[in-house]
Amino acid sequence: MNQSVHQEPELSIFGDPIARMERALSDLRNGKGVLVVDDEDRENEGDLIFSAENLTNEQMAMLIRDCSGIVCLCLTDEMATALDLPPMVANNTSSMGTGFTVSIEAKVGVTTGVSAADRVTTVKTAIADGAKPDDLARPGHVFPLRARAGGVLERRGHTEGTVDLMRLAGFKPAGVLCEVTNPDGTMARLPELIAYAQQHDIVVISIEDIVAYRGVLQLAAE
C-alpha cells in the first residue's frame, strides 16, 4: 500500500510535503513538537516527537499523558556506542526490527526515575557533551533506540525519522518519541492523529515526506 496515495489527501490540510517539512523543522527550532506518521502497510501509527536538546518537563508529561508512556530516546549508532548501550536482546525478533537498547536512568538528579522531570533529566544526561557510560544506570525508565546510519533512506521507521529531523533542524541527532493513543488506550490512526494535531497546533508529516525532503536536498547539492 503506497502511503503517498492514501495519506496525502488527508495530510494536505498541512500543505504539500515540502511545506509540511519546512513547518516541522521551523516548529522544532522553536521548541515545539511534530507528529510523524509512518506507512499504512507498516506500523500505521503516529509518534509525537520532540528535540532531546529542547525537551521540557511539560513536553515529557504530554508524552506520558497522551501517548503510550513508553518514551524512547532516538540516538545515532555512534551515540549509543559511546554510551555503551548494548541491544536489549541478543536476537531481535520484533516485527519491525526496532533497535531497542537496554533502558537507562540518570545516576544523578533523579528519584525513582519515572516522573516526567526525572525522565527529562535522564534524556539530557544521555545527550550531554562528553556523556559517559557511567553517567547512566541500567535498567531505567527511558528506552533508547539505535537508528540506522542511513536514516529513512535505509529504514523507514520513526527512529530514523526522528534522528533525520533533528539533523535537518540543526540539533544534536537525538530526539524523543512516543506513540499517540486514543483516550480508551487504542492506537490513534490518521483521522484521530490529525484531530489531535489540530487541537495542539502541531503539524503532521509522514516518513515519506522526510524521504522526499532528503531527496530534494541531495539533488540541490549535486
Q: Give, in order, the helices and strands.
A: HHHEEHEHEHEHEHEH
Helical content stands at 25-40%
Q: Widest sheet: strand order? A: 4-5-3-6-2-1-7
CATH level-two architecture: Alpha-Beta Complex
Number of strands: 7
Helix/sheet category: alpha/beta
Q: How much of the residues is beta strand, in percent?
A: 15-25%
The CATH homologous superfamily corresponds to: DHBP synthase
Site (Essential for catalytic activity): 141, 179
Function: Catalyzes the conversion of D-ribulose 5-phosphate to formate and 3,4-dihydroxy-2-butanone 4-phosphate.
EC number: 4.1.99.12
Catalytic activity: D-ribulose 5-phosphate = (2S)-2-hydroxy-3-oxobutyl phosphate + formate + H(+)
Structure characterization notes:
- 39% of the residues lie in helices and 16% in strands.
- The two termini are 31 Å apart.
- Helix 4 crosses helix 6.
- Strand 1 and strand 2 form a beta hairpin.
- The chain is of the alpha/beta class.
- It has a seven-stranded mixed sheet, with helices on both faces.
- The protein has one domain: DHBP synthase (Alpha-Beta Complex).
- Catalyzes the conversion of D-ribulose 5-phosphate to formate and 3,4-dihydroxy-2-butanone 4-phosphate.
- It is an enzyme of class 4 (lyase).
- InterPro entries: DHBP_synth_RibB-like_a/b_dom, DHBP_synthase_RibB.
- Pathway: Cofactor biosynthesis; riboflavin biosynthesis; 2-hydroxy-3-oxobutyl phosphate from D-ribulose 5-phosphate: step 1/1.
What is the topology?
Elements: H1 3-6, H2 8-11, H3 17-29, E1 34-37, E2 46-51, H4 57-66, E3 72-75, H5 77-82, E4 104-106, H6 116-127, E5 136-146, H7 158-169, E6 175-179, H8 190-200, E7 204-206, H9 207-221
Parallel strand pairs: 1-7, 3-5
Antiparallel strand pairs: 1-2, 2-6, 3-6, 4-5
Helix pairs in contact: 3-7, 3-9, 4-6
